[in-house]
Structure formats: C-alpha cells, structure tokens
Write a structure and sequence with these properties.
about 325 residues, two-stranded parallel sheet, about 45% helix
Length: about 325
C-alpha cells in the first residue's frame, strides 16, 4: 500500500484571524499511487458543488464550495463526513479544534475570543444529510480499497504569525515551515510506505529542496524539476520512495482539496468566535472576514474597545 498526502491553507492574505494549514493522508493500493483519485472515487465524490439530485460528497477547492453569505453547509458536509471516516464526530466547536489541532485548545485561554466561546456542530448542514454523506463515503472507500488515514491542521493566530515573520522575514516561509511540519508529522506515522505528497506553490516560490532537507535531514533530496508551474522532489530507498510535488493550482489533487476545505472550515469557525467576541462589546458592528480593505474598517471601529479590554495590536493584527 502507498500513502497520498495533500496540503493546503486558508487565510494567507488577511490581516485579521488565523492562517490555517491542513494536510490529509490517504492509503491506496501501490498500483494506484499515480492515479486520479477523483476517478477512483467517482461514485461517491464530486470535484465541485453537486447538481440537484446528486448525492455525492463534494471534495474540492474551498473557493468552489464557499462564498461569503452562502453559508458553511457545502464545506461542512465534506469535512465532517471525512472526519467520521477517522471515527471523529465533533459535536461542539471546541471538539473540532481538539481533533485537528490540539494546541489551539491549549492556547485558548490566551486568545480572548476563544476563552469562553463554544457552539454546537454541525453549524449549517442537516444531520440527515451528513449521515447520508458518511454512509456513502464509507461504503465506496471500502469497495475501492482506499482509506482516509489522517487529517491534521496547524492554526497560526496573529501573535504567533508575527513571531514567525520576525524569525523568517516573510510569510511564504511561515507557510512553508507550517506545511512541511504537517507533512513530516503524517509521514512519521507511515514509515516503510511509499508516498506521494501534493502541495500548492507557496507565495510564488519555485525552489523547495532546502526546506525538504531541513525536515528530512537523513535523506538525500533529489530535485527532479523546478519551474513556475511545478517543482518535483524525491527521496528515500527504492522500495519506499517519497515524491513531493509543489504545483500551481494544487487543489486539483483530491487530498489537497480536502485539506483546502478543512483549512477554510476551521478559519470560518475561528472567525465566528472572533466576530462574536467583538459584537458582544459592539452589537451593531458589522462582522469581518479579515481581508485587507474590510480589516482596516473593522480595526478602526473596534479601536476604543480594544484599548478598554487590553488587547494589543500584536494579538489582533497580522503585520503582513
């Protein structure tokens, strides 16, 4: 058997809220490592919003499934059904963080908008719809000899994000270190199995050999090609070869698409807590998604309350 790992992020551009990086791991028969997983799972998974009457589970780039104001149901159905493949069924907001990035719960007391926040899950999808998606996924994965074996996230809140900027000098490096840390974590659980890793390009970077060498210091990283659209690297013995591909538009790789959805779902849950906190102080305040233009508006409107409650700019605002 072989392992497929896909990564993606949400929240790279905003000034408010966290950067969320996720990785998903799947086990497939050795001969299927290079196949399109969407074709293998065509009876249960679709690569975009399903049409009326299509009961398949959408696993796609989060931008295809979520638009502000349209609700979280499209994302939530796929993410929560996938978590159930791992016997994880969070019923509350805090439980999903504990399942995907336990350090978030440990840090909750020092993040003002997380300290006492909680909410029931699912947020948007109907329980019967989620149950149907879970049954369909479980049945078809078993038939195709495919197994979802891991979903992990790393959530970087503004204060930590600013620390990483200080350490690395740019946010692309912060993204790369967070991403490859997750890849290393997942691969460490599957020693002796060949693996294919799919990542999106990080801030336009084309060269990743040095980063991979940092995370896998005992291996010789072989560069197989580096370019604007695709950079490929290989390492490990012939019977346990690992290949990492950094591609523009990497979400077309199903494991990366689920990582994209997971990252966006967690970020939206984080922003729900963030907006709830500020609206408790300013009930008429319009919520924000944290992106640049609106983030400046929001920051100006909360300025007086920010001083009153003692929240520093470094806790609130990402410097890039």
């Amino acid at each position: 058997m072989a392992v497929l790992i896909g990564t993606d992020e949400a929240g790279y551009g905003p000034y408010l809220g966290p950067l969320v990086i996720s990785a998903t791991a799947w086990r497939v028969p050795d001969e299927a490592i290079g196949r399109n997983l969407y074709k293998t799972l065509a009876k249960c998974v679709c690569p975009g919003p399903p049409e009326d009457g299509d009961s398949r589970v959408a696993i796609a780039d989060s931008k295809k499934l979520y638009q502000p104001g349209a609700g979280l149901a499209g994302l939530e159905r796929g993410v929560l059904a996938s978590l159930r493949m791992l016997r994880i069924a969070p019923a509350r907001w805090r439980e999903v963080w504990a399942a995907l990035d336990p350090t978030c719960i440990e840090a909750a007391p020092i993040i003002p908008w997380h300290g006492d926040y909680d909410a029931e899950l699912p947020f948007a999808v109907e329980a019967s719809c989620l149950d149907a998606a879970t049954s369909l996924l479980a049945c078809e994965l078993a038939k195709r000899g495919v197994e979802l074996i891991g979903i992990r996230s790393r959530v970087i809140f503004p204060e930590r994000f600013n620390q990483l900027l200080d350490e690395h000098g740019n946010k692309a490096a912060a993204l790369s270190y967070g991403t490859l840390g997750l890849v290393q974590e997942l691969l460490s659980k599957h020693e002796g199995e060949p693996a294919l890793i799919g990542c999106d390009k990080h801030g336009g970077r084309n060269h990743y050999a040095g980063l991979l060498q940092h995370f896998f210091p005992d291996s010789f990283i072989e560069t197989r090609g580096e370019g604007r659209l695709l950079s490929i690297y290989r390492w490990g013995p012939s019977d346990c070869r690992r290949e990492a591909r950094f591609a523009a538009g990497g979400e077309s790789f199903l494991p990366s698409a689920l990582a994209s959805m997971t990252s966006k779902y967690l970020r939206e849950l984080a922003m729900a807590a963030f907006n709830d906190f500020w609206r408790r102080h300013l009930p008429d305040l319009r919520p924000t998604a944290g992106y640049p233009t609106d983030a400046h508006r929001f920051r100006k409107e909360i300025a007086a309350v920010q001083v009153q409650v003692g929240i520093t700019d470094r806790q609130l605002w990402r410097n890039r």
